[in-house]
Amino acid sequence: MFVAAMLTRQGRYAATVRRIVQGFQRQGDRNKLGNVAARSFVTSVDPSHGLTEEQIAIQQLAMDFARNEMMPNMAMWDEKEIFPVETMRAAANLGFGAIYAQEEFGGTGLSRLDASLIFEALAQGCTSTTAYISIHNMCAWMIDTFGNESQREKWIPLLAGMEKFASYCLTEPGSGSDAVSLSTSAKRDGDDLILNGSKAFISGGGDTDVYLVMCRTGSAGPKGISCVLVEKGTPGLNFGKKEKKVGWNSQPTRMVIFEDCRVPATNIIGNEGQGFNIAMRGLNGGRINIASCSLGAAQASLQAAVDHVKVRKQFGKPLASFQNSQFRLAEMATELVASRLLVRNAARALDNDDLDTVPLCSMAKYYATEKCFNIINEALQLHGGYGYLKDYSVQQYLRDTRVHMILEGTNEVMRLLIARKVLSD
Question: Rounded to whole angstroms, how far apart are CA atoms 351 and 282?
Fold first, then answer.
């Protein structure tokens, strides 16, 4: 379905799309070849280095879209707090609405490594918008992986085309890192569930159409949690005020509130009591996705810093001629490459269902989000006072990536997950 849809696309991306499709056709067993390529990939400051021809084409498609459709608007979306629905739907037309959902019901059917490349590229155009697209993709994957055929048939086409937008609802006002203690309840009433409780910091909250809600259908502990799909407009589903945030302003954030919210029990995704497992498996990919967004912001900031120090003069010389600038750029480039290697290695582990997937995804998220934030901060410093002006994009990358160290599991929790693995060996 995806290949056919891409073949019919017209316009500025058509040649690149055809090249990708031809690559898929040449490849035959794409997954097998992808695994071989993944085992041997290398990376450099150039994010395309070491990729296959098909991966480079996918990456270029995303990069072209980021430069042409997102980057010219990112400052305006941030300032006016615009949720760019039509731009995201245009991205969905290129296959970015359900990247790693299966093709059976309209997903793109790519790998987690491919998704990382796409999110890294798109994030250079607007990190905030890309981060929401990554969350939407995580929701689509949850339905595609754990939903029954009826749920997949109904929702995957709508989410893949971004006719409908999705939000992930796990965090509560009283349970953030301690997700097992969530208290939002879903009690049986005949063939329905009655939901009561609230979710906090929900990306897209109030503006999106589908909410995947982790709620308690059983006893205390992880086995009492189920994943329930709630549609916007359901009686008893309400929203808090739109939060005012430091960054991520192109996506709304609100509390999602359930007050005797009645949904059919058939809206349970997967089995009853499987919700915590679904949430945690979703977060493995979510951590790679958000780290990939940090990579894109850091890549763009490094390039902006390089461009700036070449033209900005002090004491009669370009800043690039000073050893301090050179050493900073060298450190930034090294940290970026190291981060990218960790992220792509974790994506490969997730694709291959590696036994160490959880600690590797945790390492990638922890390391990349912190190092990339530092890279962006150094880029701002190299800009001097100009970096603090909203005329320069580096300050927006800084604001948009700060939250990456908090969401999808705080970096403190990432350290705990890594330490648990180290101590168990």
Answer: 13
How many of the other CB atoms lie within 10 Å of CB of 45? 16
Residues with Cβ within 8 Å of residue 72, at least 6 apart in sequence: none
What are 313-350's pLDDT values in tens digits? Answer: 999 999 999 999 999 999 999 999 999 999 999 999 99
Neighbours of 85 (CB within 10 A): 11
H or E stretch covering 39 = helix 30-40
In this prediction the pTM is: 0.91
Please count the CA atoms within 13 angstroms of the CA of 348 that sit on its side-chain side: 18
Report the residue count for the chain: 425
408 conformational bin, left if phi > 0, alpha if psi -120 to 50, beta if neither: left
Parallel, antiparallel or unpaired: strands 192-203 and 253-264:
antiparallel
Given 272, 335, 370, 408, which residue is catalytic? 408
- Give one DSSP letter per residue of 217-239, joined into a string: SSSSSGGGEEEEEEETT-TTEEE
Q: CA nearest 212: which of 262, 243, 256? A: 256
Q: At what angle do helices 30-40 and 323-351 cross, to 10 degrees?
A: 140
Question: Is 408 a known active-site residue?
Answer: yes
Query: Has residue 21 got a pLDDT over 60?
Result: no
